[in-house]
């Protein structure tokens, strides 16, 4: 895996949070905090992090149970949001722009609603909202991934198990299993993400989190910062029509859709992703 992230650091606490911090940033620009999706890790932003880091202070971190961060007994959304508040208070130490993918988007939305003074802007990349921990979205994939995790003691067997995982939806070239995918989400790369995922996390991803679902439903009415919602065209975590409905509920929100692009927009189409961000970041800057 290419090394395009700075050296990791650790925020002490329960659990410990391992993060990457570019430092610097142009005067007057808010820090940017990147939140990855479920079963991924901070390195999933490595094609975005250095580009944003030329102007902004950028912080990415491994969520609890992922990558190098600590394990925990519980992985409910309230705990993920509390960890984000720790990152904002203990690392960013200034109102930040949050860019959250999938469950990272749900985490960012809930934290922005609860701690509006800590958030300058919110970018939700195909966020996992009304379908959060719902049997309608990727439950079968998570269950098969959980079985693959049991083979981690044998690296070769684990690599084969990851390669054999069926894709939640066919790839752009008709790919049906992870092993057929090339590029940013190849089987080799995903295996580096999955090998450090806590099995208990995956177990909990396929069970209900009623408090988390309620927090997601209540959050849009409490958000006070500008919001950019990026909606995938295929395999989206958003329910049908949810992006447009969400934009109506948030006072200052814009929706951008990516037809034909899968759930991981930033990894699959980094250039259009960055092009979508810059006008929004300028607007956040001038709104301060």
Describe the structure.
The chain is of the alpha/beta class. The chain has one domain (9-135, 209-287): Alpha/Beta hydrolase fold, catalytic domain (Rossmann fold, 3-Layer(aba) Sandwich), CATH 3.40.50. Helices cover 37% and strands 14% of the residues. It has eleven helices and eight strands. The chain has helices at 49-52, 77-92, 103-114, 139-149, 155-163, 187-194, 199-205, 210-218, 242-249, 265-268, 270-287; strands spanning 9-11, 17-21, 32-35, 58-61, 96-101, 119-125, 227-232, 253-258. It is globular and about 50 Å long. The model has no long low-confidence stretch (mean pLDDT 95).
What key attributes describe this structure?
alpha/beta, Rossmann fold, eight-stranded mixed sheet, 11 helices, 8 strands
> What count of structural domains?
1
Q: Share of helix among residues?
A: 25-40%
Shape assignment: globular
How many individual helices? 11
Order of strands in the sheet with most strands: 1-2-4-3-5-6-7-8
Poorly predicted segments: none
Q: Structural class, please?
A: alpha/beta
Radius of gyration: 18 Å
Could you give me the name of the CATH homologous superfamily? Alpha/Beta hydrolase fold, catalytic domain
Secondary structure tally: strands? 8
Largest sheet: 8 strands, mixed
CATH topology: Rossmann fold
* Mean pLDDT reading: 95
At CATH's second level, what is the architecture? 3-Layer(aba) Sandwich
Percent strand equals 5-15%
Secondary-structure element pattern, one letter each:
EEEHEHEHEHHHHHEHEHH
CATH top level?
Answer: Alpha Beta
- For the terminal residues, how far apart are their CA atoms? 38 Å
């Amino acid at each position: 895996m290419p090394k395009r992230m700075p050296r990791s650091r650790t925020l002490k606490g329960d659990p410990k949070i391992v993060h990457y911090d570019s430092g610097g940033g142009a005067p007057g620009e808010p820090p940017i905090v990147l939140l990855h999706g479920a079963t991924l890790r901070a390195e999933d932003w490595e094609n975005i992090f250095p580009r944003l880091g030329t102007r902004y202070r950028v912080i990415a971190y491994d969520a609890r149970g992922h990558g190098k961060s600590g394990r925990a007994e519980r992985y409910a959304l309230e705990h993920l949001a509390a960890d984000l508040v720790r990152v904002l208070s203990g690392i960013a130490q200034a109102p930040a722009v949050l860019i959250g993918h999938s469950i990272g988007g749900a985490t960012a939305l809930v934290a922005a609603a609860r701690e509006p003074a800590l958030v300058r802007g919110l970018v939700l990349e195909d966020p996992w909202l009304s379908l959060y921990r719902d049997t309608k979205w990727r439950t079968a994939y998570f269950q098969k991934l959980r079985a693959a995790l049991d083979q981690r003691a044998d690296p070769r067997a684990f690599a084969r198990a990851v390669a054999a995982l069926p894709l939640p939806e066919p790839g752009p070239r008709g790919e049906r299993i992870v092993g057929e995918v090339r590029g940013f989400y190849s089987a080799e790369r995903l295996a580096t993400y999955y090998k450090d995922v806590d099995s208990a996390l995956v177990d909990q991803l396929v069970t209900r989190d009623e408090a988390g679902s309620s927090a997601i439903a209540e959050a849009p009415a409490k958000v006070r910062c500008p919001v950019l919602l990026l909606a995938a065209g295929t395999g989206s975590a958003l329910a049908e029509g949810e992006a447009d409905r969400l934009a109506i509920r948030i006072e200052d929100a814009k929706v951008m859709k990516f037809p034909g692009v899968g759930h991981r927009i930033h990894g699959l189409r980094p250039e259009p992703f960055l092009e979508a961000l810059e006008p929004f970041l300028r607007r956040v800057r001038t709104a301060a």
